[in-house]
Design a protein that fits this description.
heterodimer, A: alpha+beta, six-stranded mixed sheet, six-stranded antiparallel sheet, 6 helices, 12 strands, 29% strand, B: 176 residues, 0% strand
Chain lengths: 328, 176
């Protein structure tokens, strides 16, 4: 019995998924090639438009979380006493209660922190081994008179054996990106974080407010989500200070006919602990925070009060929040 | 005795799941990305799919559907939950936006325009056609496996796929 066209098309989809070319498949069915070609081209266009390969860091971090959860389950199984003694009271009652409590505590403090960085964050301090800065790569920022963003939390993924999120409560929550163009960066957190290798960072943006230079009107600035992620490994070690620059950029999409849409997104290439920056609004460094250590965390001497308080930090206008995406 | 058997079955299932990780993490991330159009969230959620599967392994019956198809069912439910949570938080997903590492803005803008064009066409498919395309093109499941996810016969999946691709071809052709 000859194959139906649907079956042939299905076979070609399988073959393309396995890495064969459209031509290979058309060659196998020359009698159908005229009909197949445009359909397989459409498939190719769709796959190309959505082309996406997850980063190896993200894959690795997810694998670590999976392994940690598996080990946790195994430990829980080993810790669980046999069923009968528990029922017939060979073990004292308090032991059973303790076991239940222990399982609860392990679940809560062991697994939950792996999944999400909920709960109170680390507080900033005058000195520390880590500083977090915000900067802006120049794209469409020139269209703005001001572009204020409010950052409610920072989360860093520590890829140690357990794999967990470290949450930071920013000291400075509101920044104006128009003041942070190019190498200019503003410190929003400084303090001590656990030493180790970090693979992922996200900031939680609670509001965005943009004013256009040309019209003086507020404009809607979209975000891909309220959490802006980047995967950029860095290391925090003892006796040194790591300065992580998180770079944001605003881009314009669309046309004057269809309307310009502004989008704020993380700029992975300009972010990291190996980026040069010029500190603004900081104290104790004469405005210079430049570092020159490529491909490794920069080390600078800790200076008491360095960039902690920013007296003239721009304020977010509560009434000027224009992005509905930001309202939680 | 029974408990030991159940523990060893559970361990065997965990090992099977762990073995699927390398091959299926990327496929699941891509499948989720098509729905969310946010790379970082797709990466995160793909990781969560495996954690959720680990948590729910007791409910997985080997004779039902293959584990890889079961993972896509979990991924689908997690995407639905994700959108539900986003709706409650009044967040608005943005069309045609990708968080990309490229410095080439022109290429990024062009890619976003193409993505918007293709997305517009895909959104005109029926919901079941769209799921078939997502599972076949991005999850790279076979028609048999996609049928197991969708509770449909493989033949029905092939028919839906054929109709969906023809419709997409027509829509993309009209657009260009």
């Amino acid at each position: 019995m000859s194959k139906s066209f649907d079956d042939i098309l299905d076979e070609c989809v399988n073959r393309i998924n396995r890495g064969e070319s459209i031509e290979d498949c058309l060659g196998s069915y020359p009698e159908h090639s005229e009909q197949l070609q445009p359909l397989l081209s459409a498939m190719f266009d769709i796959q190309r438009a959505y082309k996406f390969t997850p980063s190896s860091e993200a894959k690795w971090a997810a694998r670590q979380r999976f392994n940690a959860a598996r080990e946790q389950l195994e430990r829980r199984r080993e810790a669980k006493p046999p069923l009968l003694p528990r029922i017939f009271g060979r073990a004292p009652a308090w032991a059973a209660v303790t076991a239940v409590l222990l399982i609860f505590l392990i679940s809560y403090f062991g697994i939950i922190p792996l999944l999400s960085p909920e709960g109170p964050g680390l507080q900033p301090s005058a000195t520390g081994n880590f500083a977090f800065l915000i900067s802006d790569e120049v794209n469409a920022i020139g269209d703005f008179d001001s572009l204020n963003i409010s950052i409610s939390s920072i989360s860093l993924y520590l890829s140690d054996e357990s794999g967990r999120w470290i949450k930071l409560d920013p000291e400075v929550q509101a920044v104006d990106l128009t003041l942070l163009q190019g190498d200019r960066a503003q410190e929003i957190w400084r303090g001590n974080v656990p030493e180790g290798n970090y693979t992922k960072v996200f900031i939680q943006v609670s509001s965005v407010s943009g004013i256009l230079k040309e019209t003086g009107a507020s404009v809607d600035v979209k975000l891909p989500g309220d959490k802006l992620h980047i995967s950029k490994p860095f290391e925090v070690t003892s006796g040194s200070e790591t300065n992580f620059v998180y770079d944001l950029t605003v881009v314009a999409a669309g046309s004057t006919q269809s309307g310009i849409k502004y989008i704020l997104k993380p700029q992975v290439g300009q972010s990291g602990a190996d980026q040069r920056f010029e500190l603004i609004n900081g104290k104790g460094s004469n405005g210079s925070g430049k570092n020159h250590g490529p491909k490794r965390p920069r080390v600078t001497p800790s200076a008491p009060g360095f960039g902690i308080h920013i007296p003239d930090a721009p304020k977010i206008q509560e009434s000027g929040v224009v992005s509905s995406a930001m309202a939680n | 005795m029974r408990r030991e058997q159940s523990t060893s079955e559970r361990r065997a299932k965990e090992a099977t799941l762990a073995a699927l990780y390398d091959e299926y993490y990327e496929r699941i991330a891509r499948y989720i990305y098509v729905r969310l159009r946010n790379q970082a969230e797709a990466e995160d959620l793909a990781g969560e799919v495996f954690l959720k599967a680990l948590e729910s392994l007791d409910s997985y019956k080997e004779r039902g559907i293959p584990m890889q198809a079961w993972l896509f069912k979990i991924a689908h439910n997690m995407v639905v939950d994700h959108f539900r949570k986003m709706a409650k938080r009044k967040t608005v997903p943005i069309d045609a936006v990708q968080i990309m590492a490229e410095s080439d803005l022109q290429a990024t803008v062009e890619a976003n325009i193409e993505l918007a064009r293709v997305t517009k066409a895909v959104e005109q498919l029926t919901p079941v056609q769209r799921r078939v395309i997502e599972l076949r093109f991005f999850g790279e499941l076979t028609s048999e496996e996609a049928g197991q996810v969708l509770n449909k016969r493989a033949g029905a999946v092939r028919e839906l796929q054929s109709a969906a691709i023809k419709r997409l071809r027509k829509l993309l052709h009209e657009e260009s």
